[in-house]
Amino acid sequence: MNEKILNIINLLKKNNATITTVESCTGGRLAAQITAVPGASNVFPGAVVTYQTWVKEKLIGVNHNTIQEHDVVSEEVAIEMVKGGCELMNSQFAVAVTGYAGPDGGTDTIPVGTIWIACGSKNKTYTKCLNLGNDRIHNLNVATETAIDMLCEFVYDALN
User: Fold this and answer.
1) Out of 3.40.640.10, 3.10.129.10, 3.40.30.10, 3.90.950.20, which CATH number does the structure's domain 3-159 have?
2) pTM above 0.85?
3) Closest CA to 155 of 15, 2, 3
């Protein structure tokens, strides 16, 4: 069991708050980490895996123009994923991940191994860009752990 997640679940319970995940390249890994901890159902209404762009737009409400202007793997899209996840799941907090995990994909300006993580609420968001290589499994593991760390930091800061 992940002690960091357990502590955040307890803090969320204490504050009657909830968290959701909106995941693209991590494909549900964050949600799996959260739901592996007993008591998660009290603070985790659900998750959305937005693997294809149209799902980000139609289900989460990411603006098509944002994707066209910045790319689907961008800080701007990750922030919109957080806001859309909070809205869709009626959650106070969300964490979102979008990236080119590899070994293929990417663009001339956004190479494979670029992963944007956003964590926050409707009003405030922390973001981080990872620039990794083309080892898919490594990239997914690093992205998942980084997102968990960001989630813990954001929720702790917001509720303490």
Assistant:
1) 3.90.950.20
2) yes
3) 15
